[in-house]
Specification:
The complex is a heterodimer of chains A (317) and B (429). Chain A has 317 residues and is mainly alpha-helical. Helix content of chain A is 74%, strand content 0%. Chain A is globular and about 75 Å long. In chain B, helix 2 runs antiparallel to helix 13 and helix 16 packs antiparallel against helix 17. Classes of the chains: A mainly alpha (317), B alpha+beta (429). Chains A and B meet through helix 1, helix 2 and helix 13 of A and helix 1, helix 3, helix 10 and helix 16 of B.
């Protein structure tokens, strides 16, 4: 990548040489880079770094949105660590969600990708159709649809009744099941890992399978000995991205529980709890501290993934 | 390549400059004759409010009011965010539970100076003016008087051969009738009543009948674990008897008219605020009736009180406080505004406005006005101001009631838990 863009710059400079002075040439060369970078730079400093630093400061205050903040030292962090049952409850919900939804979603994405990789006709169309849920994924409309599907007289229960004569509970509003409906929603949005898996599968040389076939390896053995090991870099990438996404999940739980995380905190995702504290109960300072705890947790998870990667991720070169 | 880049960057830079210029110009102009108004409520309320805004355009042609509305639970986060971003709407619909938080934090403006000038609300009566006061200053104008109320589909009750709710009924009779009603339910999955154990106004009404309250005047908790346990027990019995909807149906209620079990066709009775009668009737095909809460015994107090269904406040940072006050006056003291809003936000606080409005109302609205008149002889005093954190306690009550309803806690444990959590929340602020 780096090499290619260098050549481009080289070419454009060569083209500009006969007409322009030296200073102008240097300016010209850099201005393009900065113009291209500008949207990102503005976004990064204005919308990411700035607010992040502000929230770091606010996490040491009792800011309540309406009055100016007062410094309270580490009090917010102490409370999170020692005296907040809702913190523990939301952690439990979030971890359960991450640990269930990420592996299931990846497994499902891989399954579909393998099915597509067998050279079926109309692949582009199918790929697009199966990707569709991911595009709609975090939208409000889908969360509303989910509510309708899994409510007491929703489509799911209608089907269960018609097919099995089983009278299902109101899945979405029952604390024993509500989180799982959100896990299913997450699995349904398998599109982006699927596309990446599909690209990964295409990279595996066909002659490896041919050789294995000749040596008499079963399909199953081929999968575990060739496909999986060669796919580990892609699996690793997908796992890291999806884990971070899952930790940040917010919209579905917010819409489905109308912002309460209910019933009985069963869908109280960490981000939702943070949002409640900040905007529902005017505790922006405390919510900022919660946000930084989440940053640390995601960082630890990611660091752990990268450290473990050297033991199971197989790179060709 | 090089040339193209140039053109593009010049073009985009120019566009950015242009849009900045228009934005700047737009907002500078806007300050003079443009107000923003934010309220919560149903589509019915939005239609009426927008109509009132349009009508005011004829009174003040050079003033434009942009209305925004949200559901109850989205409303408070949105308002808090806008206030924090120094982008508060000029006109803010306020609730009795939140007005203290906003007033004491300086987010809304005291309006005492406008009394008798832009605000002609002398005939509100002292109580209806004072219900908008915080620490002696007037921060909110009463948009309508209401009380908690029971709405029911009388035909559905009668079809099952059960006595529908009525004024003066005891909770015991209500539970008995409801059980009977559910036994002869007209369709499967249909129950006599919604489960109101997690609804703060219902709990408050019941506490007041027991001569307790949600909060004490000094901001403490006005009830004990035993009180809450008794409340949960009463509802658990009804739930077990099939008189009220099961826990997972009640949990679908998002505390608005649209998702209440009555509107969803799951129950024949709802516990709500009297002003919502108009909104409920608009969404329910069956003809609804309104009555007071059941009582713990025949000679107990009714538990009802007359409260401002909502108030209208003005942001302290508003550039057009005078203009905003003018519009509020139009809504509460001008027959044109009053006639458009009707009683959807409650019965007008102004006696003269109420008198001129009532004959023009349809049957639904008139029954609501009659309800307020009927309970007025028995109402108690306005409860003490809710302390900071009261907003969160409504959530705590709902969650604890669910823990009891889903069988995770016994009613007694629920009572203990509710009081313990409530005290923690109140101490925190």
């Amino acid at each position: 990548m780096a090499f290619r863009s260098d050549t481009l710059v080289e070419e454009s400079r060569a083209a500009a040489l006969p007409r322009k002075g030296a200073m102008r040439r240097i300016f010209d060369r850099n201005i393009h880079a900065y113009v291209f970078l500008l949207p990102w730079l503005i976004g990064f400093f204005g919308l990411t770094l700035g607010p992040a630093l502000a929230s770091l400061y606010l996490s040491f205050t009792n800011y309540d949105l309406l009055q100016s903040p007062d410094w309270v030292g580490a009090a917010n962090y102490v409370r999170i660590a020692t005296a907040d049952p809702k913190f523990a409850a939301s952690m439990k919900v979030t971890f359960l969600y991450v640990l269930l939804s990420v592996p299931l979603k990846l497994a499902f994405a891989l399954l579909i990708a393998m099915a597509f990789n067998r050279g079926i006709k109309g692949l582009t169309l199918y790929r697009a159709i199966f990707y569709l849920p991911s595009l709609l994924g975090s939208s409000v409309a889908i969360a509303v649809l989910w509510r309708q599907l899994f409510a007491s007289d929703g489509l799911v229960n209608m089907a269960l009744w018609q097919l099995f004569g089983y009278e299902g509970p109101s899945w979405i509003s029952n604390p024993n099941y509500s989180l799982y409906t959100l896990v299913i929603l997450s699995i349904w949005q398998f599109g982006s890992p699927m596309i990446i898996f599909l690209a990964g599968l295409r990279q595996i040389p066909a002659d490896m399978y041919e050789a294995a076939e000749i040596d008499g390896a079963s399909k199953q053995r081929q999968f575990f000995r060739i496909t999986l090991p060669l796919l580990t870099p892609v699996i690793f990438f997908n796992a890291v991205i999806q884990t971070i996404e899952a930790f940040k999940a917010f919209t579905p739980a917010f819409i489905i529980s109308e912002g309460t995380g209910g019933p009985i905190n069963s869908t109280l995702f960490y981000t939702l709890y943070l949002y409640q504290e900040a905007f529902g109960f005017f505790r922006m300072g405390y919510a900022s501290a919660l946000a930084w705890v989440l940053v640390v947790i995601i960082s630890l998870f990611t660091a752990f993934s990268f450290l473990s990667a050297r033991y199971w991720v197989h790179y060709d070169d | 390549m090089s040339m193209m880049l140039h053109r593009r960057s010049v073009l985009s830079g120019g566009l950015a400059a242009l849009s900045l210029a228009t934005l700047g110009g737009g907002s500078a102009l806007a300050q003079a004759a443009r107000l923003r108004m934010l309220w919560w409520g149903s589509q019915e309320r939005a239609d009426r409010t927008n109509k009132a805004i349009a009508a005011y355009k004829e009174v003040k042609p050079d003033l434009t009011i942009d209305g925004e509305f949200a559901g109850w639970s989205d409303y408070w986060p949105r308002l808090a965010t806008q206030v924090a971003g120094r982008n508060a709407p000029d006109l803010i619909q306020m609730d009795y539970r939140y007005i203290f938080e906003y007033a004491r934090r300086g987010a809304i403006a005291p309006l005492d100076d406008h009394l008798g000038k832009g605000l002609q609300i002398e005939d509100f009566g002292q109580m209806n003016i004072d219900s908008g006061r915080v620490d002696g200053k007037l921060y909110g104008i009463n948009l309508g008087v209401n009380s908690s109320a029971v709405f029911f589909d009388a035909a559905a009750w009668e079809k099952s051969g059960a006595t529908p709710p009525a004024m003066g009924q005891t909770w015991e009779e209500f539970a008995e009738n409801a059980t009977k009603m559910s036994e002869n339910k007209p369709k499967p999955g249909y129950f006599a009543t919604a489960d109101s154990s997690g609804l703060e106004p219902s709990f408050e009404n019941w506490l007041r009948q027991n001569k307790k309250s949600l909060y004490t005047p000094d901001g403490g908790l006005g009830y004990e674990p035993k009180d809450a346990a008794d409340w949960f027990t009463m509802w658990s019995k009804m739930r077990e008897a099939g008189a009220c909807v099961p826990a997972d149906v009640q949990a679908l209620d998002q505390l608005n008219i649209e998702t209440n079990p009555l509107t969803m066709g799951k129950a024949a009775t709802a516990f709500a605020h009297s002003n919502q009668f108009v909104g409920y009737q608009a969404l329910n095909k069956a003809k609804l009736s309104v009555t007071s809460y059941p009582k713990i015994s025949k000679d107990a107090p009714s538990g009802h009180y007359l409260k401002p269904s909502m108030l209208m406040s003005v942001a302290s940072g508003s550039q057009g406080i005078e203009a905003a006050v003018g519009f509020i006056n139009f809504l509460v003291a001008d027959p044109k505004g009053i006639d458009i809003l009707g009683v959807e936000r409650g019965v007008p606080a102004s006696a003269s406005m109420r008198d001129q409005l009532t004959p023009k109302l349809d049957e639904v609205s008139q029954s609501m006005v009659k309800f307020i008149a009927d309970i007025t002889p028995e109402v108690g005093d306005l409860p003490p101001a809710p302390p900071p954190g009261a907003g969160e306690l409504a959530f705590v009550l709902t969650r604890t009631s669910q823990e009891v309803a889903f069988g995770k806690l016994t009613p007694a444990e629920g009572g203990e838990r509710l009081v313990k959590e409530a005290e923690t929340v109140l101490k925190r602020k």
